């Protein structure tokens, strides 16, 4: 068999799609090849996820990468939001041969099928009328001669379109089979070749292994271990048919039964050639020479080695990566195998993987399998190879030291296509070091949020290839677990056994642990036991440390692959399965006992909690708003006995008396059985704040106001936010489907802010702009004239400026007078901070009457409760009392600022709000601060260090009674 493929970017013959692959399979003359078995069936025993696959060069990529065609109606996902101009419809009825564009990166297999179905009739017309001048005049004369002698061959035309190339091949004397993803094109091809023996099939090239089975290369796979097969089951398979080749997978855990299995094969399939491939034969191929194998794969990727052996059997071609039996006891090693580039990998067909059987293996998490109990896992073999070079790891030897990985598009295509076959609950990425390529991960996360927002996934990497930003990005894209090699916390052992890069990042565990907890990602810590020189107590410490921090542990045994036997029985290789110490270990009996207890019954161990984060049958979520699914989960704790200085709620002892007065206030509406009444409240608020009722609107707190603003006035779909702002703003804007543009962070000076805003407005044009004044992060204040200038800039760009003055009473500053002159300005004032009414959810919006009219039109009709409306009138009535509270807070703020300025190393910033952002001394760490806060039961926002800004704490101004507790909690974090 000869498999020939043009370069993947090489266009095919007329009638085929652009950039299609062409594969010709030709059988050599009888007698010119080694004896061929009659049935040409192949069997493979082993884990199908690792098994050899028929490899079709250029196939899937050739199909998916370069095809784009117009279609009627809604464009596929991924093209909808594209700003690319629509391709013009050509005059000849819709036929279009478009060059690949960036947009095609998002095409799934289903998209491609849909596009070609929509374009099939135009395509067929175009081909039959010879509209493609380029193909006839230039391409075909150059390309057809490259095919050489076609007569007498079996000609496989992949992505055959309406079949013009297949018909040509038939006319040349070939036995022709055409395959295409489009059923309509296949119907055309069958019609136009009805007077020939050419056969046509609708199929995607990605299903080629199945197709090859149907065409004569029949492949059967079984994971007998996972299936808990009996020997009778094995026999039934082996007598059911004749196989030409039986390929046996040899992992360390799948060695014990090999000899017996071979005996069954020889007895029941005497004609079959026997080959073995796997981790064990790559490390110690010579140990397999004493068995009954005809060939032993020893080098390169599995599929390359096994595929080359099949080529050898069929065509007599030289092998790669395979030792061939040349005599009763002799083997010839031949050329080493190849590590295939990722575009040439074939991905497993999930329909033939016994996932039910694997789920049984994962059902008890303490068995420490990689799968998550009660959830169905899709394994995506994403990458191979690792450059880190741990001596106890065979990945570099098995897969090479260069990272090879699938493209983001192919990865997502594979997941989507697998999900279309079976309902998987989450994805497990097989990549030795998933975050080795940060850019790839970021690109993947962005694409996943867009295409598969409900996806949950896990991966493996090293501590040194993680940082907080990356983990946050991964969490936002659905990552629920990251496995890392913690290995040991004993530095001398680490220095001796770990590569430099890994030993150097040991101290990083605490940081990564914190980051994962914050990002809500489970950390799965591999801890290596049995490394010579490591005190057992240290191994226990590493496990305890990970468990105490709330993570999952997976203890494992140190394996020295160099020390594996070079001769003797093949079963000796089973000692590398990391369950028992290797023979010859110098550890004494009591040490061993203790070590095995630690390994197999880890004290304090517990089952994973990550199952709860993964919804069974995530397809249920497919109807959710994808914008909302991008948001992180959110919850507020009700810690009543804690001093909450985190949310900037007003802290004042007089609040209790005010609320008691409100409870008994005679102006309250007592009839809560009726819908709320707005108009008198609007009038009262307008009168109290000195504006006209038609300039005022009410909302259910700042969240309700932001949601209403985004829904009502965010028609352009774009919005500009400061580099840092209230998280609720972002949530409201995202949930409303707006695209966010962040202003780059600046150094607070007004000129810089104006410039940054101008620049963003130039690029975004009409949009919504949000601004907090005073700023909710550091309390910085922009004076009214500056705010007015910014509003004027926005007006010039046709943008709306929304100023959130939640902290305005503490400045004090009032933007409402500007509303009269600036019709694009909207002022938002919430009563959460200034009036201590966060639980009531009430906010005022001030704007020009036309804007208020729009807001009221879709308002929040009954979103604001009658109790909140009552409080609005109450607040207007007792304005002076509330103003007094704000005055107190301002004076307490000055005192706290003065106090903290005197603390060595602490740097309070000037603030116009009811909080102060305090830079922590260099001796403080986030962990120490959080511990101290927890000890004193005080909540504060700890702001991690970032370029140009130290680790900081945002301290809501406490009342004088609470001040000592707050300061003690802060001081403990030094
Ligand atoms: S980092 Fe992981 S995959 Fe890479 S060599 Fe070390 S243990 Fe193996």
Explain how this protein is built:
The chain is an alpha/beta fold and 974 residues long. The protein has five domains: 2-21 and 56-80 and 90-209, 3-Layer(aba) Sandwich (Rossmann fold), CATH 3.40.50; 223-342, no CATH class; 354-620, pyruvate-formate lyase- activating enzyme, CATH 3.80.30; 655-877, Type I PLP-dependent aspartate aminotransferase-like (Major domain) (Aspartate Aminotransferase, domain 2), CATH 3.40.640.10; 883-971, Aspartate Aminotransferase, domain 1 (Alpha-Beta Complex), CATH 3.90.1150.10. It has a seven-stranded mixed sheet. Strands 22-28-27-26-25-23-24 form a seven-stranded mixed sheet, with helices on both faces. The chain has a six-stranded parallel sheet with strand order 13-16-17-18-19-20. Strand 4 (154-158), helix 4 and strand 5 form a beta-alpha-beta unit. Helix 7 (231-240) runs parallel beside helix 8 (258-268) and helix 24 (701-713) runs parallel beside helix 25 (727-735). The protein is globular. The termini are far apart. Mean pLDDT is 81; it is low at 1-41, 44-106 and 206-212. Iron/sulfur cluster is lined by residues 386, 388-390, 393, 395-396, 432-433, 462, 485.
